C-alpha cells in the first residue's frame, strides 16, 4: 500500500511540475510575443529560424549597398545633366558665331563666356560626394581633372557593387570616358575659345561637329549610368519581396499568436489548479486512510 501511495504521489508531482512548466512557458510567450527563446524549446524550428535570419541579414546588406550606390549615382546624374546644359550652350555659341552678322567684338564676348562655361564643366568633372570625387575611378581622394590644358589624373577602374546573390552592377563612371576619350571635351572647348578670338570660321564650323560628338559622349555615358541605376531599382524590389517572405517565415516560427496563447493559458491554469488540488488531497492522507 505504501508503494502504491508513493507511486501515486510521484505521478501527481510529475503532472503538477508539467502543468506548472506549461503555464510558465505560456506566460513567457504572452509577455515576449515569442514562441520560443531557446533552441531546446523547439529543436525542429532552429534550422529554419537561423536560415531565415541569415537571409534577412544578407538582404539588408545588399539593400544598404544599393542605397549607398544610388545616392552617388543620382548625384552623378545630376552633375552630368549640368554638363549637358553646358555643352548645349557651347553649341548655341558656336552656331551664333557662325552667323555672318556677328562682329569680332561679339566673338570676343562669346569667347569670354566659353571660358566661364569651361570652368563650370571642370567643376562638374571634379564633383564630390562625401569628400570623394565622383568621376575619379579608384583614385577618388585626389582631384581628377587639373592643369592647362586639362588632363585626367584619375583611374580607369570601374566600381561594382553586389546588388543581390551572384549579381553585380557597375556603380560609377570614370572621367576618361566622359571627358577625354574618344573626344577630349576640354580640348575642344579650348579650341573653340581660340577660334572665337581669331574669328576663324572654318575652325568654328569644325567645332560645331566635334562639340556635338562631345555632347553625345557625355549623353551616352549618362544613359549607361541611368540604365545601371534602373537595374538597382529592380534589384531593390526583388530584395524587398524576398525579405518580406523571409520575415513571414520567421514570424510563423517565432511569433506567438496571442489569442491562442491566452486560450491555452486558461486551459493550462485549470490543469494546474486541478493538479494542485489532487496533490493537496494526497498530501493530507494518513496511514489510516490506507488501512
Automatic annotation (TrEMBL):
Decide whether keyword Nucleus is in the record.
no
**GO terms classed as biological process:** bacterial-type flagellum-dependent cell motility
Q: Which Gene3D superfamilies match?
A: f41 fragment of flagellin, N-terminal domain
Arranged from A to Z, the UniProt key words for this protein are: Bacterial flagellum, Cell projection, Cilium, Flagellum
Q: Which domain of life is it from?
A: Bacteria
Q: Where is the Flagellin C-terminal domain?
A: 209-291
Q: Name one GO molecular function term.
A: structural molecule activity
**Pfam entry (one):** Flagellin_N
Residue ranges annotated for the Flagellin N-terminal domain, each copy included: 11-139
Cite the InterPro entries for this sequence: Flagell_FlgL, Flagellin, Flagellin_C, Flagellin_N
Q: Which GO terms describe its cellular component?
A: bacterial-type flagellum hook
SUPFAM superfamilies (UniProt xref): Phase 1 flagellin
Cellular location of this protein? Bacterial flagellum
| Similarity field | Belongs to the bacterial flagellin family.
What's the name of the protein? Flagellar hook-associated protein 3 FlgL
Provide the species name: Desulfuromonas thiophila
Amino acid at each position: 500500500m505504501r508503494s502504491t501511495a508513493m507511486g501515486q504521489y510521484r505521478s501527481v508531482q510529475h503532472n503538477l511540475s508539467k502543468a506548472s512548466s506549461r503555464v510558465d512557458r505560456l506566460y513567457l510567450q504572452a509577455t515576449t510575443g515569442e514562441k520560443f527563446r531557446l533552441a531546446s524549446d523547439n529543436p525542429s524550428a532552429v534550422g529554419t529560424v537561423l536560415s531565415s535570419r541569415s537571409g534577412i541579414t544578407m538582404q539588408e546588406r545588399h539593400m544598404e549597398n544599393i542605397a549607398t550606390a544610388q545616392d552617388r549615382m543620382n548625384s552623378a546624374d545630376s552633375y552630368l545633366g549640368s554638363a549637358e546644359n553646358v555643352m548645349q550652350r557651347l553649341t548655341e555659341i558656336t552656331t551664333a558665331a557662325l552667323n555672318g552678322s556677328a562682329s569680332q567684338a561679339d566673338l570676343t564676348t562669346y569667347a569670354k563666356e566659353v571660358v566661364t562655361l569651361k570652368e563650370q564643366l571642370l567643376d562638374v568633372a571634379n564633383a564630390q560626394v562625401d569628400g570623394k570625387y565622383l568621376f575619379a575611378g579608384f583614385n577618388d581622394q585626389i582631384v581628377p581633372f587639373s592643369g592647362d590644358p586639362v588632363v585626367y589624373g584619375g583611374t580607369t577602374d570601374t566600381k561594382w557593387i553586389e546588388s543581390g546573390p551572384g549579381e553585380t552592377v557597375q556603380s560609377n563612371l570614370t572621367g576618361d570616358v566622359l571627358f577625354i576619350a574618344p573626344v577630349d571635351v576640354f580640348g575642344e572647348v579650348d579650341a573653340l575659345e581660340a577660334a572665337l578670338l581669331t574669328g576663324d570660321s572654318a575652325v568654328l564650323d569644325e567645332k560645331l561637329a566635334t562639340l556635338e560628338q562631345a555632347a553625345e559622349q557625355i549623353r551616352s555615358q549618362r544613359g549607361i549610368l541611368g540604365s545601371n541605376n534602373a537595374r538597382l531599382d529592380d534589384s531593390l524590389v526583388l530584395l524587398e519581396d524576398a525579405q518580406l517572405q523571409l520575415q513571414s517565415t520567421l514570424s510563423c516560427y517565432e511569433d506567438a499568436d496571442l489569442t491562442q496563447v491566452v486560450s491555452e493559458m486558461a486551459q493550462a491554469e485549470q490543469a494546474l489548479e486541478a493538479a494542485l488540488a489532487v496533490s493537496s488531497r494526497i498530501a493530507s492522507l494518513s496511514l489510516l486512510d490506507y488501512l
